[in-house]
């Protein structure tokens, strides 16, 4: 089934004040399991807002949002937090690693948040993921001892450790050089292929968008294009 369904999603800021403004004007979208989708659009078009609404960090002002079959309007804050933890993995451009903790400890955080302790299974998976992303030797290092690309790979391992059905990435390669951006993108692609996790990736990089199954374009808070890969020339 679809891991994500949006029906007429609207989001306004500063509701009830003179500067109230609607940023998302009725978004309809379905995302199937296994889909690997790029979200593009000009700065200020609402991409981050859309990702925050889908990621249950902000409530929509109107419309319906289903995550993994759950009607999110019926859930209270505790249930939303639980659904977020069990279903969604986030990757941000600025990775928000905790500086006082090692790479391994940072990757284990979602497991600690979800279960109160890092489960043995999560620890095994965290070690395997860090190895997989080329950081076997860096597990005990703190973020400040790692390069930007290495930190971003830690952040991706952290997003994947609970094997979420939906991965939301907001410009995950935005501050990386081309080689690191390709490596980070390849990690997400591999995980999508191996685990069938759906991915929605905000990117300004047309090169990376061209490697997704589907490209969405948001302009002024409206989805103006939804292009499957086979419909684009050469891809
Ligand atoms: P994008 O990610 O495409 O650059 P954003 O979602 O960040 O776009 O922003 C879309 C619009 O929403 C912008 O006009 C921005 O100023 C506005 N906006 C975003 N967050 C807030 C907020 N917390 N309060 C008020 N306006 C906001
Ligand atoms: P990127 O940040 O672009 O991903 P890499 O992580 O591949 O770059 O690092 C590029 C090279 O620089 C590697 O040989 C890496 O070991 C080294 N390097 C970068 N930053 C650091 C650092 N803070 N400490 C140790 N080595 C570093």
From TrEMBL:
Please give the InterPro entries that the UniProt record associates with this protein: AAA+_ATPase, ABC_transporter-like_ATP-bd, ABC_transporter-like_CS, ABC_transpr_LolD-like, MacB-like_ATP-bd, P-loop_NTPase
Show the SUPFAM superfamilies listed in the entry.
P-loop containing nucleoside triphosphate hydrolases
User: What would be an example GO MF term here?
Assistant: ATP hydrolysis activity
According to the UniProt entry, what is the EC number of this protein? 3.6.3.-
User: For this chain's UniProt record, which GO biological process terms are given?
Assistant: lipoprotein localization to outer membrane; protein localization to outer membrane; response to antibiotic
Record's CDD domains? ABC_MJ0796_LolCDE_FtsE
Task: Please state every residue range assigned to the domain named ABC transporter.
Answer: 4-235
- GO CC, alphabetical: membrane protein complex; plasma membrane
- Keywords, A to Z? Antibiotic resistance, ATP-binding, Cell membrane, Hydrolase, Lipoprotein, Membrane, Nucleotide-binding, Transmembrane, Transmembrane helix, Transport
Pfam families (UniProt xref): ABC_tran (PF00005)
Task: Tell me its family.
Answer: Belongs to the ABC transporter superfamily. Macrolide exporter (TC 3.A.1.122) family.
The name under which this protein is listed is: Lipoprotein-releasing system ATP-binding protein
Write down the species: Tepidimonas ignava
Instruction: Give the gene name.
Output: lolD_1
């Amino acid at each position: 089934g679809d891991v994500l369904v949006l029906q007429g999603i609207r989001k306004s800021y500063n509701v009830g004040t003179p500067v109230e403004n609607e940023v998302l004007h009725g978004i309809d979208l379905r995302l199937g399991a296994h889909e690997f989708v790029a979200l593009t659009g000009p700065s200020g078009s609402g991409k981050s807002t859309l990702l925050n609404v889908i990621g249950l960090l902000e409530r929509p002002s109107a419309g319906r949002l289903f995550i993994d079959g759950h009607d999110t309007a019926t859930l209270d804050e505790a249930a939303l937090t639980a659904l977020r933890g069990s279903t969604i993995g986030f990757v941000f451009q600025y990775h928000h690693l905790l500086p006082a903790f090692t790479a391994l400890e940072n990757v284990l955080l979602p497991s600690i948040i979800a279960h109160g302790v890092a489960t043995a299974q999560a620890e095994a998976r965290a070690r395997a993921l860090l190895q997989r992303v080329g950081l076997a030797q860096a597990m005990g290092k703190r973020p400040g001892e790692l390069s930007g690309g290495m930190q971003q790979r830690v952040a991706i391992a952290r997003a994947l450790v609970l094997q979420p059905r939906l991965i939301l990435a907001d410009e995950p390669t935005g501050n990386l050089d081309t080689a690191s951006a390709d490596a980070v993108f390849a990690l997400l692609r591999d995980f999508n292929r191996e685990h069938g996790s759906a991915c929605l990736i905000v990117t300004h990089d047309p090169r990376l968008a061209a490697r997704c199954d589907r490209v969405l374009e948001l302009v002024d808070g409206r989805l103006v294009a939804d292009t499957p890969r086979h419909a684009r020339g050469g891809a």
